[in-house]
Specification:
CATH topology: Metallo-beta-lactamase, Chain A
Structural class: alpha/beta
Number of helices: 9
CATH architecture: 4-Layer Sandwich
Number of strands: 11
Shape: globular
Distance between the termini: 17 Å
Oligomer: single chain
Number of domains: 1
Bound molecules: zinc ion
CATH class: Alpha Beta
Largest sheet: 6 strands, mixed
Order of helices and strands: EEEHEHHEHHEEEEEHEHHH
CATH superfamily: Ribonuclease Z/Hydroxyacylglutathione hydrolase-like
Strand order of the largest sheet: 1-2-3-4-5-6
C-alpha cells in the first residue's frame, strides 16, 4: 500500500474525542468533542491544516464526541455527515444541515471512499468508519461494546487501524464505580475491554 491516508488523533477519552483523517483531496474531522479553540491548538501543534477539512463525520451523539460541533460549525462550510439516529438524538444537531447516511453505507469525501458499519453502544444508530483509496485504507472504531461481523469485515486489511481499548475487565469490576456505570461500560453496548480489543487485533492484524 502507498500511504495516501493519514490519521491524527487530536483528542481521545471521556473528556473529548476528535480525529482528523487526511486524504488525497482534503481531510475529514471524525467527531468534534472538544472546543474549537482546543481543536485548532492541537491541530497547530501537530502541523495539521484544518483548512483542508471538507467534512465532519459523527460516529454517535455522546457529548464527548459532539460538544464542540456547534461552535466549530459557526466557522465551517463543509459537509456534515451522520446517521439519522445520531442527528435526531440532540435538538441542536437537527438544526444543522446534515447529510444522512446509514450505518451500512458508502459515500465519497476528500478523495476517499468511506464505508460505514454498525457499532454497539448505548445511543441511537452509532457507526464506525473505513476510509480507503485504491492504494490505502484506514479503519476507525471507538465506543462499541463488541465488534460485529460487519465491523470485523470493514476493519480487515487496513494499513492504519484506530481501535478503542477502554478498560481492564477485572479493574472495572472491582473498581470504585457505581454499579450502573460498571454495567454500562462493560455491557454489550458499552466499550471494548482490553481483552476484547486484543482478541480483535489478533484477528485483524495477525
Ligand atoms: Zn460514546
Amino acid at each position: 500500500m502507498t500511504p495516501q491516508i493519514h490519521l491524527h488523533v487530536l483528542a481521545s477519552g471521556s473528556k473529548g474525542n476528535a480525529a482528523v483523517v487526511e486524504g488525497p483531496e482534503g481531510s475529514v474531522l471524525v467527531d468534534c468533542g472538544i472546543s474549537r479553540r482546543a481543536l485548532l491548538q492541537r491541530a497547530a501543534e501537530l502541523g495539521v491544516d484544518m483548512g483542508r477539512v471538507r467534512a465532519v463525520v459523527l460516529t454517535h451523539d455522546h457529548s464527548d464526541h459532539v460538544a464542540g460541533l456547534s461552535v466549530f460549525c459557526n466557522h465551517f462550510e463543509g459537509r456534515l455527515i451522520a446517521t439519522a439516529g445520531t442527528v435526531g438524538a440532540r435538538k441542536y444537531l437537527t438544526e444543522l444541515p446534515f447529510e444522512l447516511v446509514g450505518h451500512s453505507d458508502a459515500f465519497g469525501v476528500a478523495g476517499m471512499r468511506v464505508r460505514t458499519f454498525p457499532t454497539y453502544h448505548d445511543v441511537p444508530d452509532p457507526m464506525g468508519l473505513r476510509f480507503e483509496t485504491d492504494d490505502d485504507a484506514l479503519g476507525y472504531c471507538t465506543d462499541t461494546g463488541h465488534l460485529g461481523k460487519e465491523a470485523l469485515e470493514a476493519l480487515r486489511g487496513v494499513r492504519i487501524l484506530a481501535l478503542e481499548s477502554n478498560h481492564d475487565e477485572r479493574m472495572l469490576a472491582s473498581g470504585p464505580y457505581p454499579a450502573y456505570l460498571k454495567a454500562r461500560v462493560g455491557g454489550a453496548c458499552g466499550h471494548l475491554s482490553n481483552a476484547q480489543a486484543a482478541q480483535a487485533l489478533a484477528q485483524l492484524v495477525g
